């Protein structure tokens, strides 16, 4: 039988250790009680320690001081202040009559300015004290626009309640009114057979199919049918027209889901960089090209790419067959065409073809010959010392914007662009050439990949952004290199890329070299567009950029003005900034939440996701009576 042996010695040792530890703990406890007994204190003053009873005695460098210790409370509950909550601003709806309010193109304000050269139709924004502190309402009965591509052909009457163009342009197939909606047959003054047939005619003269033409600008666009039908050919057009007697023409374009801005060729540069567009177009746009020393054609030359095209149809082209219908004399029209031809030649443009109602000129690929022929053409001279990309309230000048230098006559100034779609992801010439010294090819590639990941994260946060066709018109308030738009290029939408004039780098030229479109903007002012332009607005560090420049409230009210009901917003910024934004946005009836950075919660940068609630102006008595009459019928 096995005998069990117990470790008596080990047990005695453990008991001894425990007893010793207990005695030591008790001893240290008693010492501590003695040192901290009532009336004792240890002070450190003047570099010396002192141990005292109810009065503290301590030794300084020169003398001994005695201080009475006061243990009574010095604060009561009445002294405590409640931390105030962030002020919730009061942002009521504006007057229902302001449902189409465009602050910087306000008709009453414009009448204060010179009518010469249409200066009164340029941007004239309200002063700081005149900015409205209210929310622009949608008209009564507003509906979400039709989805693309149906929106190209239809728009709700309740969204743009103007029938003027249906009467004024009745015979030109611009727009027709049918029950509760407008229909856009795709016609225009110079293309009664429709925009598609007209574009086909242009395509017989220059190549519109190989991707070499990607960006276009339409001056005096009407309802933007030309741009609308070019989209199916992978050509994206910046359409613009003034807010004038052709009521709501740009608003119609935006309701159709076509890129457009309010704008005019007058005395300041168009808000685009130099060498932006592959093609410029004017179809009976009523711009006096031959007047003002050819200033307007000089401006078109600035924004045209080397080798780009200018397409002109309407007066005076083909005047021989149209002069009677245009109610002008043959001599007057012939003289106008001769002057246009002379200006184009002085810009070193080559007239490629004129067939029927269409004439096309081409800008040279470089200025080697053009500089030599200045001995023949004394005017215009080349501009000296101008930044050709500066275009925010920049005055036009009657001088020719020089192209970047080349070493060979066959070389394309500024660098040769790849055809679309390769140009979207290839390194833009402005970067590869070193024109933007602080941005490298590696920066560009990394930025492109970064935004692919960010947009994927956005789609997880906003399922409507992930739903193809839900959003059509998008705005990026601080685009940098256009990475946000590039990541969405396969979706049925377009993005208006903004490069703020306060940005560290002027990168709008890079964005155009990628085959995208955009404009300059100062977000302390309103944008040149109608209310309810965009389905979705994105902003990267916008409010940090404009801190101390203007009121956060004013920027958010402008965003609310141009955002459609039930449209969404995604903003990324420092968390403290977004908390303030959220407070104001909720006062504007936006539903908001703040989400973590895509890399996790340990980043100060966060993402605010918001949706504008649906609300409209109340229906007027007249509108209520019309509804009642229609229901009875």
TrEMBL record:
<dbReference type="InterPro" id="IPR029063">
    <property type="entry name" value="SAM-dependent_MTases_sf"/>
</dbReference>
<keyword id="KW-0489">Methyltransferase</keyword>
<feature type="transmembrane region" description="Helical">
    <location>
        <begin position="12"/>
        <end position="34"/>
    </location>
</feature>
<keyword id="KW-1133">Transmembrane helix</keyword>
<keyword id="KW-0812">Transmembrane</keyword>
<dbReference type="GO" id="GO:0008168">
    <property type="term" value="F:methyltransferase activity"/>
</dbReference>
<keyword id="KW-0325">Glycoprotein</keyword>
<dbReference type="Pfam" id="PF03141">
    <property type="entry name" value="Methyltransf_29"/>
</dbReference>
<dbReference type="GO" id="GO:0005768">
    <property type="term" value="C:endosome"/>
</dbReference>
<dbReference type="InterPro" id="IPR004159">
    <property type="entry name" value="Put_SAM_MeTrfase"/>
</dbReference>
<dbReference type="GO" id="GO:0005789">
    <property type="term" value="C:endoplasmic reticulum membrane"/>
</dbReference>
<keyword id="KW-0735">Signal-anchor</keyword>
<dbReference type="GO" id="GO:0005802">
    <property type="term" value="C:trans-Golgi network"/>
</dbReference>
<keyword id="KW-0808">Transferase</keyword>
<dbReference type="GO" id="GO:0032259">
    <property type="term" value="P:methylation"/>
</dbReference>
<comment type="similarity">
    <text>Belongs to the methyltransferase superfamily.</text>
</comment>
<keyword id="KW-0472">Membrane</keyword>
<protein>
    <recommendedName>
        <fullName>Methyltransferase</fullName>
        <ecNumber>2.1.1.-</ecNumber>
    </recommendedName>
</protein>
